[in-house]
Q: What sequence folds into this?
């Protein structure tokens, strides 16, 4: 039996086993069957026997076909409900922003400018890589596209200048650059609502539980004060804990200067892309004051990008990654909403209230945050983590926390999604890219992940004490 076949059989086995187990007391057999499919989808998202979007698409199709949600009309309305979700289209639009950065060359230019002016020492190079990510983060919800697509192609060439390769002197510079890159993209992914697609998915699921959609500004008020010190500390801390043997790097600025010369002067399209991205950010932050929805702003600017030829219509319709995420997240939103429709979340809430009712609110909040963070060791996808756990944790929180604690708790909980990606070589999208560069061994990655993960979790806990 091939490995791929085995991976395909595992979620099917999970479904079959759970399907024939009698429903627990208080839960209908119909709801239990839906939960069985949901678990099979989550397992499929973790091990990915087929593309993740196909896993979710299969899940909603199967539920609708079996009529677990209701009659045929109700079933298809539910199955397609995620595709009308405004947050999903905001994510799709932001993928077009990322494409604009790449196609105009603006993303590469930003990274090279950082190296040119900050790269005279190895520590300076670390900060150059970090700030390259930071500048792009508010506009690129795919940290894979940001760190893997924009920062990686530039940063991975820097160690080569100093003859640092995976199989030759990796600690000279390559290992340090790799770790700083992945660690800082995890921090920036938590810093901004729009820096990580699962942040937006989590916010949508939270809105379904609380009736309140967390805005860009509300997220920023909590997460930016927590993440900025952590962002500034990360390259230095990596320099202390995992230092490069190459301390000075006078060649790097010269190399960056040559690369910038090859790019030539800043083009009109780069200026236009920077302007449109700035307008989008302003509208995301202050849009409510102007009566403009965030998604409306995003899709309008994408239309302008196409009309001004920053990207072409062919670029848009051929962007497989964007349409993959559109289908993927739309189906997961529907699956998560289905948990409420069939009564699973109500059942979980009633049972958890009984089990946790005796805990002091502070102990309850800390327990939920720590558990939510540590459970990421079992997930190879932040999206799978969100889909599986956010509805459950929100049910518990809504049942046991005071109303005034819900909003800050949900921001802190969702805000941990970015930083938790540091703990494993598979914890977030760009992790396999930087791990695959070969500069850091698996054992070393797990060790560094434990150290930095502990620090990042401590900051999240501090945030809970400050804001909740």
A:
């Amino acid at each position: 039996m091939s490995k791929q076949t085995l991976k395909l059989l595992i979620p099917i086995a999970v479904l079959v086993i759970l399907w024939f187990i009698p429903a627990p007391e208080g839960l209908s057999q119909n709801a239990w069957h839906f939960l069985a499919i949901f678990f099979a989808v989550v397992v499929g998202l973790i091990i990915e026997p087929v593309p993740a979007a196909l896993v979710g698409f299969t899940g909603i199709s199967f539920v609708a076909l079996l009529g677990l949600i209701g009659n045929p009309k109700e079933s298809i309305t539910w199955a397609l409900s995620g595709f009308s979700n405004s947050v999903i289209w905001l994510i799709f639009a932001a993928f077009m922003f990322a494409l604009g950065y790449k196609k105009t060359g603006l993303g590469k230019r930003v990274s090279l400018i950082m190296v040119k002016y900050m790269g005279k020492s190895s520590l300076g190079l670390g900060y150059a890589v970090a700030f390259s990510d930071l500048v792009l983060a508010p506009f690129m919800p795919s940290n894979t596209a940001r760190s893997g697509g924009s920062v990686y192609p530039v940063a991975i060439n820097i160690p080569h200048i100093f003859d640092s390769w995976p199989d030759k002197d990796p600690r000279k510079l390559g290992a340090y650059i790799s770790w700083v890159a992945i660690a800082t993209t995890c921090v920036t992914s938590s810093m901004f609502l729009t820096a990580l697609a699962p942040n937006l998915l989590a916010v949508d699921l939270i809105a379904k539980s609380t009736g309140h959609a967390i805005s860009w500004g509300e997220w920023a008020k909590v997460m930016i004060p927590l993440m900025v010190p952590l962002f500034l500390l990360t390259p230095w801390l990596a320099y202390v804990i995992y230092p490069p043997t190459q301390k000075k790097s006078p060649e790097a600025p010269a190399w960056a200067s040559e690369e910038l010369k090859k790019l030539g002067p800043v083009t009109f399209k780069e200026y236009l892309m920077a302007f449109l991205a700035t307008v989008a950010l302003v509208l995301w932050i202050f849009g409510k004051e102007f009566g403009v929805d965030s998604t409306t702003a995003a899709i309008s600017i994408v239309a302008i990008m196409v009309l001004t030829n920053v990207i072409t219509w062919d670029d848009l319709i051929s962007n497989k990654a964007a349409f993959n995420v559109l289908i993927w997240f739309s189906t997961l939103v529907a699956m998560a909403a289905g948990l409420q429709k069939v009564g699973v979340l109500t059942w979980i809430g009633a049972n958890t209230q009984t089990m946790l009712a005796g805990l002091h609110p502070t102990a309850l909040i800390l327990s939920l945050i720590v558990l939510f963070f540590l459970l990421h060791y079992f997930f190879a996808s932040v999206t799978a983590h969100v889909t599986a756990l956010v509805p459950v944790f929100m049910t518990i929180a809504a049942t046991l926390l005071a109303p005034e604690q819900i909003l800050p708790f949900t921001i802190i909980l969702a805000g941990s999604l970015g930083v938790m990606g540091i703990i494993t070589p598979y914890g977030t999208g760009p992790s396999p890219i930087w791990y695959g560069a070969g500069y850091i061994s698996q054992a070393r990655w797990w060790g560094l992940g434990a150290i930095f993960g502990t620090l990042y979790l401590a900051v999240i806990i501090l945030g809970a004490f400050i804001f909740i």
The chain has a mean pLDDT of 87. The first helix runs from residue 3 to 19.
